[in-house]
Amino acid sequence: MQRYFTITQLTQEFDITTRTLRFYEAQGLVSPTRRGRQRLYTHGDRTRIKLILRGKRLGFSLNDIREIIEMYASDPGETGQLRLLLDRISARREELLEKQRDIELTLLELDEVESGARTRISELEAGLSREKV
Amino acid sequence: MQRYFTITQLTQEFDITTRTLRFYEAQGLVSPTRRGRQRLYTHGDRTRIKLILRGKRLGFSLNDIREIIEMYASDPGETGQLRLLLDRISARREELLEKQRDIELTLLELDEVESGARTRISELEAGLSREKV
DNA sequence: CAACATATTGACTTTAACGTAAAAAGCCTG
DNA sequence: CAGGCTTTTTACGTTAAAGTCAATATGTTG
Lengths: 133, 133
What we know:
The structure is a homodimer.
Chain A: H1 7-14, H2 18-26, E1 33-35, E2 38-40, H3 43-57, H4 62-73, H5 79-125
Antiparallel strand pairs in A: 1-2
Chain A binds a DNA duplex through helix 2.
């Protein structure tokens, strides 16, 4: 297993541009180490990038994503901070559950549209295309 | 049940601004009728708005949403068009299923962070706060 | 080492999705 | 019907998330 990934390896793997990865770095979402000026991404960096892209697919902004990632990485020493973390977690969980419900609804609607379309196709194929079946 | 909704009623119900609704109209996503210059939204319009907002929560762009809504409303007369519709439906379904998986993963990660946090809280409350438990 | 590709940096541009502000129109209400 | 409110229209501004382009720098290969 290789120790480091280059920027182009990652752009190819995730189908994003170098500009995107540098932008994420400027936003403090990843911090690849350097060999000279060149960026070297560790497996940890790669995992972070996966998290970012997953967040994007779910419609989270980069700021949201930053907060989520920081939750993962945070290591609060006192109870108050830990309780605050628990609150944030449950807020995020609520959001995700709402998205799940939204998806369920949309899938159901797609099912309806699909079965409607299938019905009409079979009508047409049965030669019943003389209006008003 | 009322026949029409005013723009402000809908902005209040959905917690969006009039600017947003007019913007959606300019994008061809809703087409309220008019009484003079005033916009009157039907129940159908209201449903569309719900669809739009649901799409947004799932991270779809307004263009995506337009296409999805057009799928719902489309009434293609010939088999070729219907098959194309079926393709679009299954593509959208794939996207949604991917989002579902993304959500599952994220929920699992949140569970882990949460249980870690709970563990540390109980350690702290047990008075074991003298480093290295 | 010259040539050529690859990487970095910085500046400017673009696109989506609204926000904000100003002016005019419409419509109650005393 | 004057004053005040909401609504509409028009136009310009803003923000997030990159895209594009040009100038260097670095690396590598014959």
